[in-house]
C-alpha cells in the first residue's frame, strides 16, 4: 500500500452546528471537543464533488464508502471547545395531513421526538486536523485556475453547519480514530499506535496525539490511495 500525502488543516465553524452526540434531559448536546474523522471525510468529498448522487440511500457500509473516497481524515480537535446555551427545536412531521398511528407512537421519544432541546457548537471554534490523500487545496486551485486557500464544507445534522478549511501548521499533532481503524481490520491490541486515549463515543475512540507524518504512515496501512 502507498503512504498517502498528508495536508494539515485548520477548521473553523462559521455557523452553529450540532450532532445528537450526548443525551441530556429532553434533548442532546454536541461533543464540542472533536469533529469526527468520517463526517469530515464525507463533508470534504461533498464539497469537492466526489460523492455520487443516488435516488435512494445505499445500505450503510462505512468501509465501502471510505475505500471509495479520495480522502480519509484524522479526527479534528478543538482549540477552544464550547457550546451555546440549549435551544428548543421542533421536528415538524405533521404538516402533510397528520400522523399515522405508527408515527404517532414513535414521536414521543428519540430522534423522531417532535419537541426537544439541542446544544450547538458556536461560530468561531477552531479545530486542528489533517486530510490524507491528494491535497484538496491544490486540486481546487487547478480547477479554479487560481490559488485556493479555503474550502467551505457543510456538516452536522441536516448539513446545517458551515465550516471553513484552510491549510495549517504541519507540526500540530493529530489524533486517529481507532474505530475507523477497526473498520479496515486493524485492532488497537494489534497496533500499539492505535491504543485508545480518549473514548468520546462508541464510534469516536481516539489515539494519543501524534505527528502528521506518523499518522499518514499508519493510515497508509489501512487502504490503497
Descriptive notes:
The chain has 225 residues and is α+β, with helices and mostly antiparallel strands. It has a domain at 6-84 and 120-169. Helices cover 21% and strands 26% of the residues. It is built from six helices and 13 strands. Strand 10 and strand 11 (161-167) form a beta hairpin. The protein is globular, with a radius of gyration of 19 Å.
Please outline what is shown here.
The protein is α+β, with helices and mostly antiparallel strands. The protein is 21% helix and 26% strand.
Which features characterize this protein?
225 residues; alpha+beta; seven-stranded antiparallel β-sheet; four-stranded mixed β-sheet; 6 helices; 21% helix
Q: pLDDT average, as an integer? A: 90
Radius of gyration: 19 Å
Helix content: 10-25%
The helix count comes to 6
Secondary-structure element series: EEEEHHEEEHEEHEEHEEH
In total, the number of strands is 13
Apparent shape: globular
* Class by alpha and beta content: alpha+beta
Would you identify the regions where 5 or more consecutive residues have pLDDT less than 50?
Answer: none
Largest sheet: 7 strands, antiparallel
DSSP strand (E) fraction? 25-35%
Question: Quaternary state, please?
Answer: single chain
- N-C termini distance: 7 Å
Amino acid at each position: 500500500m502507498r503512504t498517502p500525502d498528508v495536508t494539515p488543516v485548520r477548521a473553523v465553524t462559521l455557523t452553529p452546528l450540532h450532532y445528537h452526540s450526548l443525551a441530556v434531559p429532553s434533548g442532546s448536546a454536541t461533543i464540542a471537543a472533536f469533529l469526527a474523522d468520517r463526517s469530515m471525510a464525507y463533508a470534504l468529498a461533498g464539497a469537492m464533488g466526489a460523492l455520487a448522487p443516488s435516488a435512494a440511500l445505499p445500505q450503510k457500509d462505512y468501509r465501502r464508502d471510505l475505500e471509495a473516497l479520495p480522502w480519509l481524515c484524522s479526527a479534528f480537535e478543538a482549540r477552544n471547545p464550547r457550546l451555546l446555551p440549549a435551544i428548543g427545536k421542533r421536528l415538524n412531521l405533521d404538516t402533510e395531513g397528520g400522523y399515522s398511528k405508527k408515527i404517532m407512537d414513535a414521536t414521543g421519544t428519540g430522534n423522531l421526538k417532535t419537541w426537544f432541546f439541542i446544544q450547538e457548537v458556536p461560530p468561531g471554534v477552531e479545530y486542528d486536523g489533517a486530510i490524507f490523500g491528494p491535497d484538496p487545496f491544490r486540486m481546487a486551485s487547478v480547477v479554479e485556475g487560481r490559488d485556493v486557500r479555503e474550502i467551505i464544507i457543510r456538516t452536522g445534522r441536516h448539513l446545517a453547519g458551515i465550516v471553513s478549511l484552510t491549510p495549517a501548521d504541519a507540526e500540530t499533532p493529530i489524533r486517529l480514530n481507532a474505530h475507523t481503524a477497526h473498520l479496515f481490520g486493524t485492532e488497537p491490541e494489534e497496533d500499539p499506535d492505535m491504543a485508545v486515549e480518549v473514548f468520546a463515543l462508541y464510534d469516536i475512540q481516539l489515539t494519543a496525539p501524534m505527528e502528521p507524518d506518523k499518522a499518514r504512515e499508519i493510515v497508509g496501512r489501512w487502504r490503497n490511495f
